Amino acid sequence: PNKREVKFNDDRSVMQFISNAIAEALREKSAVPQLRPRERQGRDASGINTEQRKTRVQTSGHENSAGTSSFSSGFGDFEQVEIKNILSTFKKETETAKEDVEKFAAARREENENSGPFDFRDLDYRGVIFGTYILATDDDFLYLLDQHAAHERVNFEKLRDQFESAEKHKQEILTPFTVSAGFREDNWTGPLMEMGFDIEEFGPDTYAVRAVPMFMDISEAELFVNDYIDSISDDTDFESRDVVLSLASKACKASVKARDALKDEEIRRLVDDLSACENPYSCPHGRPTFIRISRYDIERRFKRK
After folding, report:
1. 73-82: b (≥16 Cβ within 10 Å) or e
2. C-alpha–C-alpha distance, residues 59 and 75, integer Å
3. b/e map of 111-125 (b: 16 or more CB within 10 Å)?
4. What is the β-pairing status of strands 170-180 and 124-129?
5. Tens-digit pLDDT profile for residues 33-82
6. What does the DSSP 8-state code read for residue 42?
7. Residue pLDDT, tens place only, 94-112
8. Which of 87, 114, 176, 256 has the smallest number of CB atoms closer than 10 Å to its CB?
9. CB-based burial of residue 251 (10 Å sphere; 0-12 exposed, 13-18 middle, 19+ buried)?
10. CA-to-CA distance for 27 and 118, rounded, in angstroms?
């Protein structure tokens, strides 16, 4: 009871157990970010709408012209309000709040009962809005997938896997492109080679890229290498895995941009690639790749619930 620190005989196993449990929980349907209406936040603990509570006034203690009873606030003269009306309104609001809570709880129970590992293949894709967000649905939810954030996640994990794998999947390009680097350290090219690039010195402060990762087109690869170079600082430690992957995540902004028009087959490929990711829920910088809105919440907006 008095110990501030508890040590395990095999702390690595404990850490792995916790890590696996968290990873499994994050792949559940219930872990998908969900957009909910704000109307529920308008009620306080008693069930009374907070805006309506603000507008209520206390009476002065005098009787009105009809002779009805009233009560005194003790803080001066205020508009007179009949107690009977207050109690009646309070009762109606309490009943309404109770119904809202019961409906909300029922919806959440139904959602939890249908919970399980999330699978993108269960969704029906309906198109793209604003040139940015892919629309999809299942029986109970509408999904909005951010194509740029999704592509960032896909590219980052593919680059990371190549960096950590002995086998490099790359493609030689007929016309190499060149990049400029204003520093002479040779070790900055090492991580790029590990990710699937072939890059060599071509002239003063100039390097030629002769091969790129298999999953990147040439323009995308060129943007990535230039962004990678721009992210390098004087104290960058190229021997550190975390530093290298941080550079890669920053450079992944060269991925599909918002408003880039994607064809149906490109959308399907992007969704399939995202579903294969270790963490399909966010881009490397923490933004969500997609959100969902429940049918229940949509129906509430249309006053159907």
Report:
1. eeeeeeebbe
2. 9
3. beeeeeebebeebeb
4. unpaired
5. 666 655 444 444 444 454 444 444 444 444 444 445 444 444 444 445 56
6. G
7. 677 666 666 666 666 655 5
8. 87
9. buried
10. 6
